[in-house]
């Protein structure tokens, strides 16, 4: 390859959007994907002396997962029905069903957006390895770095919340039948799972992790069946609700359910009434569908990314049906006493213990998945780019992975011990990160790709499709943006509305979650930072 082209295609050199389309169209990462790539329709001609990308072997080495394996991983990533009864307690029957239906449909749409953009922009020459790579291609390096930092933080917080959920389960198990003994110190319960996660996290590939994910799906299904069977004949766990929500949720209170939003002063457990309680319920629905941030990472390890839509549709349909059924059923029997997570609101100790034990197994797999993708993101995007760490497929890379994984889990442990309020922390994470990655940012991806693709005119395409990439643009700036926008005004207009609504919901969720956290630490809750007393 000639010197000028080497310079132009250097790793740190700015690459025009049109060049990403050029290489994706000429050289898809899988020969079977060529016919299904939604990029340029024309066939491109490779440079005469093109010899293939230097990173081709590393890019293909990670591609081992089939669509069935990715289906298991999506379900493991998103599937979390155990917050849905609590969300229905904040929203009531009608609004709860509406919220879960709307967000289920929108999360599927977001997944479709990310898949289409990935298929159009990914190639061996410029592989898309994470969420941030899409923003690099559409909005530049600064956007990529911001997205990667936010995604890394969100995955770390997801591991923290999962440790907290498993720790609460172990704490309930250790306190015995009457739940009055001291049991294992709560901090120790959390530490047990931090250590276990650091060990299980040594599994590096998603294909191998999908074996565990398959088992985790059946563990979660078993918990759903246990909860459904137990709540029919047993009262709520008043010991747990009294400890976590305060004196208004102790024994002797009548179970109430509402078709619409619960009126002020009734049914709320989220640190506030009315508006605050409703928005915290909405944020739980957001968290329930918050898996889109991992979709690009899943695509990057698929043998045939064109099959991703099968994984997406099957997973989303299954998840939606279980969410709505489980939330409605448990709320119908427990009303405002529904706990988050639901299995910790079961009153018979034996069934509560069985469900908690299963939750520990499923939660450990989910947290391992988050830590796997989170550490890969940090390693590939930070260590390899900044300090030139060796590839993960090399011996030294495997050693680095083994040493860094315990550090990752240690940081997650410190975070969850410092803020041990499960429902309110998940609400804040949902508002700040999950809402953004699942709804707000995909709308930007759709807008960026649609406008930039539509702005390419025939004269420019002829310049790009010669024997080597060359770029002569007919216009730039606002004029080019507006021309691209008006090529598909209805589609682009819808995504503008989608983006603005998601952003507004995100900001409202942050406000209500902060209010709930302040109320939770006002002295009415059992949860304390770095304490032995459990929050349930």
Automatic annotation (TrEMBL):
Residues 64-447 form the Amino acid transporter transmembrane domain. Pfam families: Aa_trans. It is found in: Membrane. Residues 31-57 are annotated as: Disordered. The keyword Membrane applies. Coiled coil: none annotated. It is a multi-pass membrane protein. One of its GO terms (molecular function) is L-amino acid transmembrane transporter activity. InterPro entries: AA_transpt_TM. Keywords: Membrane, Transmembrane, Transmembrane helix. The chain crosses the membrane at residues 70-91, 97-115, 146-167, 179-200, 212-232, 281-300, 312-333, 353-378, 399-422, 428-449, 496-521. The keyword Nucleotidyltransferase does not apply. One of its GO terms (cellular component) is membrane. Its main location: membrane. PANTHER family: AMINO ACID TRANSPORTER (PTHR22950), AMINO ACID TRANSPORTER TRANSMEMBRANE DOMAIN-CONTAINING PROTEIN (PTHR22950:SF461). Belongs to the amino acid/polyamine transporter 2 family. This is Transmembrane amino acid transporter. It comes from Echria macrotheca.
């Amino acid at each position: 390859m000639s010197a000028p082209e080497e310079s132009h295609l250097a790793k740190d050199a700015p690459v025009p959007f049109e060049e990403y389309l050029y290489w994706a169209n000429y050289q898809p990462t899988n020969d079977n994907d060529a016919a299904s790539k939604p990029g340029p329709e024309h066939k491109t001609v490779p440079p005469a002396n093109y010899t293939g990308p230097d990173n081709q072997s590393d890019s293909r080495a990670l591609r081992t997962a089939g669509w069935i394996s990715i289906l298991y991983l999506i379900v493991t990533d998103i599937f979390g029905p155990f917050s849905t009864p609590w969300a229905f307690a904040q929203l009531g029957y009608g609004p709860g069903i509406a919220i879960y239906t709307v967000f289920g449909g929108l999360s599927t749409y977001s997944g479709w957006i990310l898949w289409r953009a990935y298929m159009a922009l990914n190639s061996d020459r410029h592989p898309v390895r994470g969420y941030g790579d899409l923003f690099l291609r559409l909005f530049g390096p600064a956007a990529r770095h911001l997205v990667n930092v936010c995604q890394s933080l969100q995955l770390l917080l997801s591991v923290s919340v999962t440790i907290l959920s498993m720790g609460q389960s172990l704490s309930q198990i250790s306190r015995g039948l009457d739940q009055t003994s001291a049991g294992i110190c709560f901090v120790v319960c959390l530490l047990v799972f931090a250590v276990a996660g650091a060990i299980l996290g040594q599994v590096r590939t998603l294909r191998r992790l999908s074996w565990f994910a398959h088992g985790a799906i059946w563990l979660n299904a078993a918990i759903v069946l246990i909860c459904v069977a137990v709540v029919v004949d047993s009262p709520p766990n008043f010991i747990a609700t009294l400890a976590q929500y305060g004196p208004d949720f102790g024994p002797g209170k009548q179970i109430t359910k509402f078709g619409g939003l619960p009126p002020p002063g009734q049914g709320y457990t989220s640190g506030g009434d009315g508006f605050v309680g409703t928005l915290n319920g909405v944020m739980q629905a957001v968290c329930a569908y918050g898996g889109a941030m991992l979709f690009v990472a899943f695509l990057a390890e698929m043998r045939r990314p064109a099959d991703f839509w099968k994984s997406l549709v099957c997973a989303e349909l299954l998840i939606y049906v279980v969410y709505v059924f489980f939330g409605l059923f448990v709320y119908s029997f427990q009303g405002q006493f529904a706990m988050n997570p639901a299995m910790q609101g079961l009153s018979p100790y034996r069934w509560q213990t069985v469900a908690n034990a299963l939750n520990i197994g499923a939660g450990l797999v989910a947290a391992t998945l988050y830590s796997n993708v989170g550490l890969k993101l940090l390693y590939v995007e930070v260590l390899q780019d900044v300090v030139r760490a060796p590839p993960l497929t090399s011996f030294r890379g495997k050693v680095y992975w083994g040493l860094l994984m315990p550090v990752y889990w240690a940081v997650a442990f410190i975070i969850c011990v410092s803020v041990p309020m499960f429902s309110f922390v998940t609400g804040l994470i949902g508002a700040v990160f999950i809402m953004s990655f699942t709804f707000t940012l995909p709308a930007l991806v759709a807008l960026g790709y649609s406008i930039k693709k539509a702005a390419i005119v025939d004269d420019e395409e002829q310049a790009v499709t010669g024997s080597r990439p060359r770029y002569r643009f007919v216009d730039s700036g606002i004029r080019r943006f507006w021309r691209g926008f008006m090529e598909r005004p209805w589609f682009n207009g819808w995504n503008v509305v989608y983006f603005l609504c998601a952003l507004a919901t995100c900001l409202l969720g942050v406000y209500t979650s902060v209010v709930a956290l302040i109320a939770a630490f006002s002295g009415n809750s059992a949860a304390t930072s770095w304490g032995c007393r459990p929050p349930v």
